[in-house]
Structure formats: C-alpha cells, structure tokens
Amino acid sequence: MKFVLLGAPGAGKGSQAAVMADYYKIPHISTGDVFRAHLKAGTEIGVLAKSYMDKGLLVPDDVVDKIVEQRLAESDCVRGFILDGYPRTIPQAEALSTVTDLDYVVDIVVANDIVIKRISGRRMCMCGATYNTNSYNSPLCEKCGKQLYQREDDKKETVLKRLEVYEKNTAPLIEYYQEKGLLIQIDGGESVEKTFENLQKALATK
Ligand code: AMP
Asked: Could you identify the atom of ligand 1 that is nearest to the CA of residue 165?
C-alpha cells in the first residue's frame, strides 16, 4: 500500500509511520530523517538543509522532490511505502503525482495545544529512537544507553514558525487530497496504539 501521512509537526507522523511500516512490511520514508542523516554525514545537501531547518522553514521543493523520487525508485518500495513529512506543499504533491500513484493520504488530526506539548517534550537518540519526557523520565536511551537530546528545531521559537509554515504551506494539501478522494482523517490526540486503531477502522470503512 502506498501511504502519505499528513499532520502538523508533533501530530505523531513518525511514531505512526513506524508502527505502520512494521505492520504492512513496507518502508518508512521520512524526509526529515533523510535531511538529518545528510546533516550528520556533513554532505552538501545536509549543509543546505540545515540553513532552512534551523529556522523552521521548508527546504526548497526541487531538493526534496529529487530525494524522494530517487528513494521511491529503490526496490523495497515496489510493494508500497509510507511517506512521512512529504509532500509538504502543493508543488511537491504535483511532483509526487508524476512519480507514483497513492492509495491513501492519512491526515493525523491533533489539537494545537497537544502538538506544542508533545514537541517540547520530544527527545531523540542517535540510534533513531524517539521519546517524550511526558511519558519517559530517563535522560538515556532505553535501547542503546546513549544520552538523549532535543532536536534544534524542536525548541520553542522554531516550533511556532514550523506550525505557521504548516498552516500556510501544508494544510492546503488536506483539501487537495480530499478532492482526489484519497483522504482519511483520524484522531491522533491519544496514544500511538489508539491512533493506529483509528487508522485501521478508517481503512476498513473507506
Ligand atoms: P520533520 O522531521 O518532518 O519535522 O522535518 C524537519 C525539517 O526538515 C522541516 O522543518 C523542514 O525544514 C525539512 N523538511 C522535511 N521534509 C520536508 C519537505 N517535504 N519539504 C521541505 N522541507 C522539509
């Protein structure tokens, strides 16, 4: 199955995508993760992306489009994929439509105050694990023992900018995909498990 996940920063796209990837046995493709990996490796794309990410702004469409097109051409995407954080603009959605069709676009709906609380509590590990101080107390990763850290763009000033960018550039995709008959909206305000249950129910009745 070919999924796109929509939702504000902090709506839980990454957590949901991880559960879905495991359940459907298809790859989870997060453009944010791709940029963070480039950043870590010190590539040209990483340096470019950082200048936008640190300000809470979107990396230019042509850069993201190319990365996603190349990734979707890899053999593990044949059975499907979960795109998390892409597309984020109408031009990106148009570019994606020239590369692949989609089965479902899942919009994870979460109230703004919950989103802000979740992002401010989000902590990451170098190994890829994600935690939240609202439910996890240790400063160390449960999986590998390394020190957890806060994403630079999860700090308060940047989060507000990211939410503004989401409203302006990404929220219009909800109507865009609604008109194409691909949209499913699910409540993501509770746990990851409950959100996945909501998704399963919505898919069963679509
Ligand atoms: P995320 O981890 O999805 O929140 O993405 C982190 C940051 O990476 C975003 O705030 C953007 O700066 C950049 N980014 C990720 N995906 C995209 C995209 N589809 N278009 C433009 N910028 C992106």
From this structure: 10
Q: At what angle do helices 90-97 and 61-72 cross, to 10 degrees?
A: 30
Bond before 60 cis per omega within 30 degrees: no
Catalytic residue among 36, 88, 118, 123: 88
pTM of the model: 0.93
36 counts as catalytic:
no
Q: Which residue's CA lies nearest to atom 14 of ligand 1? A: 32
Distance between CA atoms of 20 and 194, rounded to whole angstroms?
Answer: 13
The pocket around ligand 1, CB under 6 angstroms, is made up of 9, 31-32, 35, 52-53, 57-59, 64, 85-86, 88, 92, 153, 162
Helix, strand or coil, per DSSP, at residue 178: helix
CA-nearest residue for atom 11, ligand 1, is 58
Q: Is 161 a catalytic residue?
A: no
Show pLDDT as tens, one digit a residue, over the chain (206 residues). Answer: 999 999 999 999 999 999 999 999 999 999 999 999 999 999 999 999 999 999 999 999 999 999 999 999 999 999 999 999 999 999 999 999 999 999 999 999 999 999 999 999 999 999 988 999 989 999 999 999 999 999 989 988 899 999 999 999 999 999 999 999 999 999 999 999 999 999 999 999 98
